[in-house]
Amino acid sequence: MGALISSFRGPADANIAASAEETGLGDLPESCAAELLLRLDPPQICRLAVLNRAFRAASSTDFVWESKLPTNYADIIERLFEGGEEFASCKRNIYSMLCRPNFFDGETKKAWLDKSSGKTCLLISFNGLSITGIDDRRYWTRIPTEESRFSSVAYCQQIWWLEVYGEIEFPFSPGSYSIFYRLHLGRAQRRFGRRVCSSEHVHGWDKKPVKFQISSGDGQQATKQCHLKEPGKWIHYHAGDFAVEKSCRSMKLKLSMMQIDCTHTKGGLCVDSVVIYPCEYRERLQSF
């Protein structure tokens, strides 16, 4: 029976079978591969790009990467870079550039896009904040350290009145964001290659809570209080959240950290930075 069926198969059938055996994912039309990539996040796109020539070609198309960029990416480029027109060529390169931490405002701030979601992440150095008495060496000193992404922190030895203010104007992409202060009780340093922390000046923070406040240009406000704790450890203290409903050309934020009860002194505090991060990725700050 098998021999009988085989006798009816002509040369055309054999050619079709051979052609089917030679066809693979590499022969997928670029347009089909691009449609698939549109449904993936950027890290997944980069992994598929090394699979074959179809996905490699599709992963370079502008319309794939433009779908991953925030709709106001041109405003972000204008805020971060002078001569933003230089970035008007390849959308994949634009995405890659914006995902790197980029300094701005005299290198007192850094901004980048989260690689997976394209949402804004922002870091403000203590030098980009206004700290009452920062230039008075009796109260504050600037300490170089490898534990800061800006290479130095502000250290308060002793003070009666703590005020730290900040203001930022930035074109955030849509989403919900959390604001954190990165603080440390005690002075950490390296001795013989080991990290040691001096807590001799840490005092007063358990008596009254520190008050955090944020407000946005569109009327959002948040207030939070907490005691500073756990000497020897960097902690991200949550100051509040805000939301961006749609891509904006500029969102203005004001933030503050205060402990102005003058019935007691407090000291031994390192102020590093303020972090603005997408709410859904807050757990990443544990290794930040």
UniProtKB/TrEMBL annotation:
The lineage of its organism: Eukaryota, Viridiplantae, Streptophyta, Embryophyta, Tracheophyta. This is F-box domain-containing protein. PROSITE patterns: FBOX. It comes from the Eukaryota. Residues 22-68 form the F-box domain. Pfam families: PP2 (PF14299).
